[in-house]
């Protein structure tokens, strides 16, 4: 079976003198699997996710998503591939604050025709996701910047899930939530990812999230790092 994600002999160093470096010899995520990748602040979790998404490209080695080696794609192709296959929930959420919630949710479909084709009625699907994520559908017309942080996190999840991408990548999406809200948020995220059949890779420093996942991996188990000199 082709893994949803495979990292092989990956090496990356941020540019500049004494740039932080990350090496991963072997890691894979199977279709439908959920993995929590744990690491301290500054350990390289966001760097790894940027490599997985093709936002930055490896210095050597391979990142393959459903069998496609990201380094073999040209920059534009890589952006299109990411939009088609990967739903990303960024640490800072990256919503467009002045755009309507509906437009934020539908944004990935503009860059991903295959993903767009899987959504028969985009407006209705955005409304369904909102409803299933516990958001009142009236907020679809509101600017995203007017929502509470918890609501914005759910919108970011809806945006990642629309069109059922094969891989969901999430960077500490629960860090701003209290324990009870965190719990219900994760339930919604897992239910929706399961319904979409998506694999999930989440990074966090919070071990308490581990019980939800098929597998918990510590970054230091799979990665060697070279720290930047301070
Ligand atoms: N754009 C960048 N340019 C140069 N170095 C960077 C860049 N982004 C991150 N780094 C460096 O990479 C190292 C790891 O940072 P990274 O953000 O990947 O860690 P993290 O585990 O996600 O941390 P946190 O949990 O605090 O978000 C740090 O030393 C950081 O300075």
UniProtKB/TrEMBL annotation:
Q: List the keywords (alphabetical).
A: ATP-binding, Nucleotide-binding, Transport
Return the SUPFAM superfamilies for the record: P-loop containing nucleoside triphosphate hydrolases
Keyword check for Nucleotide-binding:
yes
Extract the Pfam families matched here.
ABC_tran
What is this protein's record name? ABC transporter ATP-binding protein
Which Gene3D superfamilies does the annotation name? P-loop containing nucleotide triphosphate hydrolases
**A molecular-function term among this protein's GO annotations:** ATP binding
PROSITE patterns for this protein: ABC_TRANSPORTER_1, ABC_TRANSPORTER_2, SIGMA54_INTERACT_1
- What are the residue boundaries of the ABC transporter domain, all occurrences included? 5-229
| PANTHER family in alphabetical order | ATP-BINDING COMPONENT OF ABC TRANSPORTER-RELATED (PTHR24220:SF611), IMPORT ATP-BINDING PROTEIN (PTHR24220)
Q: Does the record bear Transmembrane helix in its keywords?
A: no
């Amino acid at each position: 079976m082709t893994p949803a994600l495979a990292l092989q002999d990956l090496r990356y160093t941020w540019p500049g003198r004494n740039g932080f470096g990350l090496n991963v010899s072997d890691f894979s995520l199977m279709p439908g699997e959920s993995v929590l990748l744990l690491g301290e602040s500054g350990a390289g979790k966001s760097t790894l996710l940027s490599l997985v998404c093709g936002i930055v490209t490896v210095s050597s080695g391979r990142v393959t998503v459903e069998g496609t080696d990201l380094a073999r794609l040209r920059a534009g192709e890589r952006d299109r591939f990411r939009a088609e296959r990967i739903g990303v929930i960024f640490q800072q959420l990256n919503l467009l604050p002045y755009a309507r919630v509906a437009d934020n949710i539908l944004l990935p479909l503009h860059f991903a025709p295959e993903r767009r084709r899987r959504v028969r009625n985009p407006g209705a699907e955005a409304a369904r996701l909102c409803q299933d994520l516990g958001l009142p559908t009236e907020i679809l017309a509101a600017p995203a910047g007017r929502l509470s942080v918890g609501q914005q996190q759910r919108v970011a999840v809806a945006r990642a899930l629309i069109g059922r991408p094969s891989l969901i990548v999430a960077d500490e999406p629960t860090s701003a939530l209290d324990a009870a809200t965190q719990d219900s948020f994760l339930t919604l995220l897992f239910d929706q990812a399961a319904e979409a059949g998506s694999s999930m890779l989440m990074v966090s420093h919070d071990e308490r999230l581990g019980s939800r996942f098929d597998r918990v991996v510590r970054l230091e188990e799979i990665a060697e790092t070279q720290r930047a000199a301070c």
